[in-house]
């Protein structure tokens, strides 16, 4: 009996020890217990932006930050924002501040910008004219068929001297109906953003965002007739990282801005994209009208 009792006691002690070991293992895998767990972050993006985030995901800096970054390619801005809103991705990287404002208003959503990244200049392109001064009367101008980029294109046309807009022009939702002066009687056509490089030969002028221009083999600094510069008038066009309101203070997502702006990432961007993504490190409050300076 004593021998049997001793065997049973030994088995019981082994089971208890095993249970404690499992509990210890589970605890070590929890960031709340040890702070050592790698956090998975899914980023929705497209085109050259997705390429940049894949570079960041593979970097030593991401590993040091204990982030497992996974990049999900999504075709289209609305679709990418919808995926963020619905929780299919944690954060997205593709859009300007004006595009975000427009999306939230049109979709009655509440997505939040958590960091700035860069200004990617929009350009005016043409195969028919070699300068803005050469644009002829009645030329057809192709603009992106979404509110933010339509308004952005019109602002660029005004900056080039081709048109004038209302004094209270809405930078996120303005339309061709807000043109107050059109001395060259330009005609406007709305097109799908992604078709910009393909329609150059069919119209007088086409306005193309730089991500799409790059995909079409165009460098905005070299190939456009006129392009945006960083200024107060273009701050609505600064790109941002975007997430949902319940995640905007997530510590893991907050680390993404530092990863984007680190030296290695910026060198990669400069080498890969010919200087067409101009770094911006302003706080989000700057875009909301509260200058950080």
Automatic annotation (TrEMBL):
Query: Which keywords label this protein?
Result: Lipoprotein, Membrane, Palmitate, Signal
**Where does the UniProt entry say this protein principally localizes?**
membrane
Q: Where in the cell is it found?
A: Membrane
Q: Give the matching InterPro entries.
A: Lipoprotein_NlpA (IPR004872)
Q: What SUPFAM superfamilies would the database entry show?
A: Periplasmic binding protein-like II
Gene3D superfamilies reported for this sequence: Periplasmic binding protein-like II
Membrane topology, as annotated, equals: Lipid-anchor
Family to which this protein belongs: Belongs to the NlpA lipoprotein family.
PANTHER family on file: D-METHIONINE-BINDING LIPOPROTEIN METQ (PTHR30429), LIPOPROTEIN (PTHR30429:SF3)
Q: What is this protein called?
A: Metal ABC transporter substrate-binding protein
State the organism named in the record.
Paenibacillus kribbensis
């Amino acid at each position: 009996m004593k021998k049997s009792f001793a065997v049973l006691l030994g088995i019981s002690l082994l089971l208890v020890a095993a249970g404690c070991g499992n509990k210890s293992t589970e605890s070590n895998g929890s960031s709340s217990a040890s702070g050592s767990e790698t956090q998975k972050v899914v980023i929705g993006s497209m085109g050259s932006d997705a390429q940049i985030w894949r570079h960041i995901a593979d970097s030593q800096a991401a590993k040091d930050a204990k982030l497992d970054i996974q990049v999900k390619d999504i075709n289209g801005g609305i679709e990418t924002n919808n995926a963020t809103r619905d929780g299919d991705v944690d954060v997205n990287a593709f859009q300007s501040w004006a595009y975000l404002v427009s999306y939230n208003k049109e979709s009655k959503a509440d997505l939040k910008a958590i960091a700035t990244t860069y200004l990617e200049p929009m350009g005016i392109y043409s195969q028919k004219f070699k300068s803005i001064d050469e644009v002829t009367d009645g030329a057809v101008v192709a603009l992106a068929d979404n509110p933010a980029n339509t308004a952005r294109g019109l602002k660029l046309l005004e900056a080039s001297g081709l048109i004038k807009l209302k004094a209270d022009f809405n930078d996120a939702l303005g339309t061709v109906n807000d043109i107050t002066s059109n001395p060259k009687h330009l005609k406007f056509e709305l097109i799908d953003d992604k078709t910009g490089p393909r329609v150059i030969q069919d119209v007088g002028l086409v306005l193309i965002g730089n991500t799409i221009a790059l995909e079409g083999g165009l460098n905005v600094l070299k190939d456009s007739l006129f392009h945006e510069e960083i200024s107060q008038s273009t701050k609505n066009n600064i790109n941002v990282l975007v997430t949902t309101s319940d995640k905007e203070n997530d510590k893991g997502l907050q680390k993404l801005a530092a990863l984007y702006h680190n030296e290695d990432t910026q060198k990669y961007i400069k080498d890969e994209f010919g200087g067409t993504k101009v770094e911006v490190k302003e706080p989000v409050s700057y875009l909301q009208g509260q200058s950080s300076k």
